[in-house]
Design a protein that fits this description.
alpha/beta, Rossmann fold, 2 domains, five-stranded parallel β-sheet, 36% helix, 15% strand, binds phosphoric acid mono(formamide)ester
């Protein structure tokens, strides 16, 4: 595997899940695979879970790890060609990428949507430069449009906790004070569409996900109706994807607190498990009682980030 961006990069999903559960039973089994190999993790944005779980995954595989926080200690990077670099940016990404690639075998990159230009974000302008100019396998640690390591961990968690063969999984928008990217809901939709689940998306009008991710998923604008009989509730805020009105891309269109997931919502579900990728703003996205309930899976989900990353890095090492 040379690039990990989309669900199909893993090939057969059942086989990938099987591998994840085998690794979960013995996460140090492939220690020799990464000996004398180095993973470089590059962060243009903050992280807690991705930073720690991916480092741990690399260590599980016997790898060395270098972490670079681009905004703390590195030269400020220009990312556009043709710019006269007479401002505060000292280095161009087009030199920085091949230089960074000299020091590693695999590269993970986190670079969020900038909300300056929808086309630039949705064309994955930054990550694609890493793929093109590094000459190394590249895995996405949350890009402008996707967060596949999170979605793989979410799927592992759903497989572990499901009580029926084909559970009902609901992705619900929830309010947030700031404009957040669409990477998590995009990927979650893509992965749920590929999994054997009954998948429903609910959000206020104007928050329609890009069809390349939403696919044929059912969209229900009545949140309570969507929750009826659900086995898993996956809450997340996202800003306007700009599908119907491109001029609204990246905007906060709704702050309706009736969308906060609370006991009233959970009461109409099939005693559903609650999921969120974290970090989460309590009593905006979800109430204290729901996130603290025994049915909350936010910690097992975070724990499975180590497993999803171990599978992905292992597969990349196998193709070096
Ligand atoms: N869920 C997730 O990616 O968390 P971090 O932003 O802390 O890495």
């Amino acid at each position: 595997m040379n690039v990990f961006q989309h669900v199909e990069d893993l090939g057969d999903l059942k086989a990938a899940l099987q591998e994840a559960f085998e690794i979960k039973k013995d996460r140090y089994r492939y220690q020799e695979l990464g000996r004398n190999k180095t993973a470089l993790l590059i962060f243009f944005n903050n992280s807690l879970r991705t930073r720690l779980s991916t480092q741990k995954a690399a260590m599980n595989l016997g790898m060395n790890v270098i972490v670079l926080d681009v905004n703390q200690g590195a030269w400020k990077l220009e990312t556009e060609r043709g710019v006269v670099m007479d401002g505060d940016k000292s280095e161009h990404l087009l030199e920085a990428i091949p230089v960074m690639a000299c020091y590693c075998d695999l590269i993970g990159v986190r670079s969020f949507a900038r909300f300056e230009n929808r086309a630039d974000d949705y064309e994955e302008k930054i990550l694609n430069q890493f793929i093109r100019y590094s000459g190394k396998p590249v895995f996405f640690m949350e890009s402008a449009t996707v967060h596949p390591l999170q979605s793989f961990a979410d799927l592992i968690t759903i497989e572990e906790y499901k009580r029926t063969q084909r559970p009902k999984v609901v992705l619900t928008w929830a309010p947030h004070p700031k404009a957040l990217p669409q990477a998590v809901p995009n990927s979650f939709a893509e992965w749920m569409n590929a999994a054997d689940v009954d998948f429903v998306i609910t959000h206020p009008e104007g928050y329609e996900l890009d069809p390349m991710f939403a696919g044929n998923a059912r969209v229900e604008y009545d949140q309570l109706k969507a929750f009826e009989g659900a086995d898993f509730i996956y809450a997340k805020n996202w800003s306007c994807p700009g599908v119907t009105r491109p001029e609204d891309y990246g905007k906060v269109l709704c702050k309706d607190m009736s969308w906060t997931v609370d006991a009233r919502h959970m009461a109409v579900t099939n005693n559903a498990f609650f999921m969120h990728c974290l970090p989460v703003r309590r009593n905006m996205i979800v109430t204290d009682d729901v996130i603290e309930a025994p049915t909350s899976l936010v910690i097992p989900e975070a724990a499975n980030r180590e497993i999803s990353a171990t599978v992905v890095l292992k597969r990349m090492l196998e193709t070096l």
